[in-house]
Amino acid sequence: MLSLLIVDDEVYIARKIQASVNWEDLGIFEVCLAHNIRQAKEIIESRQIDIVICDIEMPQGTGIDLLAWVRERELPIAFIYLTCHSEFEYAKKAIQLGSLDYLLKPVQPDELRSAVAGAAKKIDKEKPLHVEQFWQDLLQQRISSSPSSLYNSIDKRQLPYSENTRMLPVLIGIHQWEKKLSPLDENRLEYAIRKAAEEIVLADRSGIILHVKRGTLLLLLSECPIRGTDLTELSSKLQLFIHESAKYFYCKLSCYPGRFVSVPEILGLYEKLADSHWNNVSRWMRVLPFRERAECLLELPGPPMNVWSEMLKQGDKSRLQDDIARLLESWRSVEGLDVKRLQQFYQSFMQMCLFTMQRQGLQADGRFLSLLSPERARTATSSLEDLETWAKELVEEALGTVHEEDEQQLLIEKIKRYITLHIDQGLSRQYIADHIGLSPGYVAKLFKKAAGVSVSDYIVEEKMRIAKELLAKSDMTVSSVALAVGFSNFAYFSAIFKKKVRSTPVDYRRNTGLCRNSIER
User: Fold this and answer.
1) Which of 317, 326, 320, 318 has its CA nearest to residue 306?
2) In the predicted model, is pLDDT for residue 296 greater than 80?
3) pLDDT score of 18 more than 60
4) What is the rounded CA–CA span in Å between residue 47 and residue 29?
5) 163-278 falls under which CATH superfamily?
6) What per-residue confidence (pLDDT) applies to 129?
7) Beta carbons of 270 and 169 less than 8 angstroms apart
8) Per-residue pLDDT tens over the stretch 457-472
9) Residue 63 and residue 55 in contact, taking contact as beta carbons nearer than 8 Å
10) Mean pLDDT, range 429-450, rounded to an integer
11) 422-511 maps to which CATH number?
């Protein structure tokens, strides 16, 4: 039902407008009259007015002033102007302030009827939006939830709630999508889930469903005097809704019915329901009526991190992963198990893996570190299933790093052996790479990372090591030693030797006590 206010300083015209249309045919069951802005404001403040038909030029203020006053108070009232003035500036100002129509006097009844019918249709379309905006403002705390402030906002917005209104909030929380979705597809499916909730749960009772944030919907059910507060039928419908959502929308979700409360109590109860969903790590796809959450007082079987560290060192992947699965499964039936306990496991297991790898002389690479990102930490601790998946992946990556390090070490040893065996030949990255079967660039990068020196520097160091050994332990001439380590130019060999050893080859041999008089060159 809608209400109408006619504002005109000429009493005769106001009454003529009142009598010119059958208002009930348009869904209007109350028509009020005012002859100046003061009277109009008093009526608007004391009644719920939906549509105003207003003259522009009046002795105590214009219709434009009245519309501006209404807009300042954010009242959802549609304005239709009747005036003798056709000046553009009036029409422009009316449009800027959101006037719905602008009609010139004398207006014909059919024209007026059409304008009011359009306003009524627009109001019917927008009223649900006004209601939803109110709840969004409350849940996002853009308006105060104190009773006096909240009821004042309700009156101001002309919403159908009072101090006697009682509503039951039901939080719908999405745990997981069963398939990988783009953000757009996820939004589409959340909209489909919302429509499904309307069809299944709100089919025969009054209420509204809101999209609060990603993965969270809130159903607000109005109290039904006939049904009372029995939740048995509601629980059955919610369970059907959960089943249908899993079947058609690829998601696992749970529903958390609260209790019937007054409008100012909705925000506090919603926050408690949201906390219940956040801490639901093991009981998915259920209807979970609200109750004050109990702390997890039972002693949980603790993870044997020392044992698991040893398994990781030994590379016993299957046994370690089986142990993880058994432990987390034993937690499933624990009353009060929450995100905090899962976060504690996450921290302990992560530190164990990093410590074990460090003791093995290994560094975590990019793939391993990606499993420790803040976003992955949040998803890993959202459920026992996600935590188990994360822990097993971390084991895979840790052991993969060990395996890679072992393979790389074998390659480094192979490169070093090749250099030693071919020390008397011309050596280059290309020859070594061809022998190993890898690209020269990769060989250089891998060797530098593992050995701490470049391939070329290592070759020189190896040549000097063998040269010193031959000078100290054999009676080969210095020239022969130079040839034995790949130097055809004796002077160049001597210069490199002196630079690296800080002694000439002859002095080095003399200082080792193995100088032979016959050995000069």
Assistant:
1) 320
2) no
3) yes
4) 13
5) Reverse transcriptase/Diguanylate cyclase domain (3.30.70.270)
6) 73
7) yes
8) 989 999 999 999 998 8
9) yes
10) 80
11) 1.10.10.60
